[in-house]
Amino acid sequence: MNPLLQQKITTNGPVYSFHAFLFPFEWSYKEQTTRLFEEETRLARLASWMERDAHWERRASWLNAQSLAQFNEVAYFYEFVRPVLYDSGNEKSLQCHYYYRLPGENPEYVIELPDGTTYRLAIDDIVISYYDMGVGVLAFHLLNTDRNQSSPSDIQRINFYGRRVYPPFLGTDMNKVGMQDFFEDADWAEGLRRTVSGANELARSIRLESKGDIWAAEYFQSWLTNQDLDREPDLIEQILPLSLRGRVLLEPVLDDRMYVVCWYGNDRLSRQVSGGDPPNNYKTHDWWYSYMFVDREWKTCENKEMMQELLTSATYARWANYGTFYGISRYSFMALMGEMEKQYISKLLFTHTQTLYYKLALLCLVQRACLLRFSDEITAISQLDKSERQIGERVGSLYKQYLRFVNKIYFREVTAQEQGIELYEIMQQQMRLPQQVRALQEEMKELHQYAMIVEEDHRNDKLDILTYIGAFFVVPSFIGTYFGISDYDLSGQWIWISVFCLLSAGLAFAAIRATGDRRMVCLGLLIALMVIVLFIFPNIEKIWE
Questions:
Q1: Which of 275, 266, 285, 281 is nearest to 335 (CA)?
Q2: Quick one: residue 233, left, alpha or beta (phi over 0 = left, psi -120 to 50 = alpha)?
Q3: Are strands 107-112 and 118-131 parallel, antiparallel or unpaired?
Q4: Could you tell me which of 129, 62, 56, 49 has the C-alpha nearest to residue 97?
Q5: Strands 332-337, 259-265: parallel, antiparallel or unpaired by DSSP?
Q6: Cβ count near 91 (within 10 Å)
Q7: How far apart are CA 451 and CA 393, in angstroms?
Q8: CA distance 14 to 144
Q9: Mapping DSSP to helix (H, G, I), strand (E, B) and coil, where does residue 266 land?
């Protein structure tokens, strides 16, 4: 192993790395009062439950900046983008944004690894945003201020273990492979042990502490009795308001991991990645690949051509000669540059990662979550029985929210700053958002066409009723009218007239209901009956004479 990856930072800096773990989710009320999408994603009830809890605080919008940092962040984005990123605080806001009131002194995000190694990160903030599209993002903002956990390998392990709040799998018994027992093995405790201690894929625990006082923790033990992948992890659930837990369901958008935004300052490593032998070393550097794609300690791509292609498309190397790199994948935004104490620019770019680039990642995650939420709703509507009378109304409600998403949340460009434009484009491409938006547009068109067909069927059903009623009465009415205006003596013939009316009504009704040959038979009988009624019956006496 490269000895550089084990070396700790030699300078004394205020921060050695910054880590933000983002948990994007879909939210929904467990007790639905209506099936309309726009009604079920209104924030009013949810906001009232959040504000009852003393641990969460809805802060005023940054649109009225209270500090230099706030002003710089807000000014970076276009005016039409800001409502998505900042809570206006009024009823028309697209989101409700809450900060967790951290308890005690020096709160920490503690990651205990399977081998007993423990990483402690200072909690800068815990924030959660709920959007009225039925999605949200919970984020842990963490600072690594301990030089003893500042080596490149330490940073890899912090990101790998710190973001994983679900078991990626439960380890199976390889001695049972090829036997039916392999598929019947339900030893959940042993499966979890293999994942944590055997495969080293999961931390032993993740805890939120204040001087040893644990106020939220994930030990992964609940997975032994509840294997529902749509539920909230314990770490997330324990910091949510009690009034919210039984009423609102949070379902993850990503897999078992949270999205990572990370800044790391390491002068020697950044110089190594920036060039040397071979040239353009960032395209072939194993650690840079592992760091960008959040691998534990070794890269998960053993194909040189593929690795180079992935690194080339995912690396923003505008400032490569200065040793500054940004790597963007579907589940990470990673920054590497020199240490703060050696490069003044590193301090500036550290704050950019904390604020501007974090907001870019947040916006893309919200967009991604919205796309998945819309797809889920489209699937739910398409599975309804055609007899469901609310299909058209539900489609209309969904389409209204879709138009709001396209106009107020999904943007092709969010800032006039050149570097921000380029980073945002890479994020969009890595998450495949433009393709998914186009696919959603097609799904919405197909759903609208389906709703039109269903509505047409409903209208036809109503018209069919009128047709049946008309068929039942038109022919008998004609018979009655015919005899009413003729000089035929109807006295004593009302029973026959009634029988003819009933028979003609029945044959007319049957002709409409029937198809193919049966319809022709019914029409033939009806014609024969009408010939008898109109020509033979009035002249029956003359015929007998």
A1: 266
A2: beta
A3: antiparallel
A4: 129
A5: parallel
A6: 9
A7: 9
A8: 9
A9: coil
d(CA 299, CA 131): 36
Kind of pairing, strands 17-29 and 107-112? unpaired
CA-CA distance, 115 to 196, in Å (whole number)? 10
> What are the two backbone dihedrals, phi and then psi, of residue 358, each rounded to the nearest 5 degrees?
-60, -40
292/308 Cα distance (integer angstroms) = 13
The number of beta carbons lying within 10 Å of the beta carbon of residue 340 is: 23
**Taking a C-beta distance cutoff of 8 angstroms, is the pair 249, 135 a contact?**
no
What residue has token string 């028309």? 92
Total Cβ atoms within 10 A of residue 517: 8
Whole-angstrom CA distances from 179 to 170, 175, 381, 429, 441 are: 18, 9, 42, 44, 47
> Rounded to two decimals, what is the model's pTM?
0.84
Identify which of 157, 162, 160, 187 has the alpha carbon closest to the alpha carbon of residue 172. Answer: 187
Q: What is the pLDDT along the chain (545 residues), one digit of tens a residue?
A: 678 888 999 888 899 999 999 999 999 888 766 678 888 888 988 998 998 889 999 986 666 778 888 889 999 999 999 999 998 888 788 899 999 999 988 999 999 999 999 999 999 999 999 999 999 999 999 999 999 999 999 999 999 999 999 998 999 999 899 899 999 999 999 999 999 988 889 999 999 999 889 999 999 999 999 888 888 899 999 999 988 888 888 888 888 889 999 999 999 999 889 875 554 588 889 999 999 999 988 888 999 999 999 999 999 999 988 889 999 999 999 999 999 877 788 999 999 999 999 999 999 999 999 999 998 888 888 777 766 667 777 888 888 888 899 999 999 999 999 999 999 999 999 999 999 999 988 888 887 777 776 666 556 555 655 565 555 556 666 666 656 656 555 555 667 667 767 777 777 767 666 767 776 777 677 677 677 766 666 666 555 55
Q: Which of 118, 154, 128, 372 is nearest to 237 (CA)?
A: 128
Q: How far apart are CA 252 and CA 196, in angstroms?
A: 21
Q: For residues 63 and 84, give the distance between their C-alpha atoms in angstroms, rounded to a whole number.
A: 12
Q: What are 21's strand-pairing partners? A: 140, 260
d(CA 374, CA 381): 11
CB 502 within 8 A of CB 495: no
Integer CA distances (angstroms), 212 to 102, 124, 146, 149, 301, in order: 14, 17, 17, 19, 39
For 455, residues 6+ apart whose C-beta sits below 8 A from its C-beta are: 391, 392
**Distance, CA of 253 to chain centre:** 5
Q: What is the identity of the amino acid at 272? A: Q
Bridge partners for 130 per DSSP: 96, 136
Of 138, 97, 137, 87, nearest to 373 by C-alpha is 137
262 secondary structure, DSSP code: E
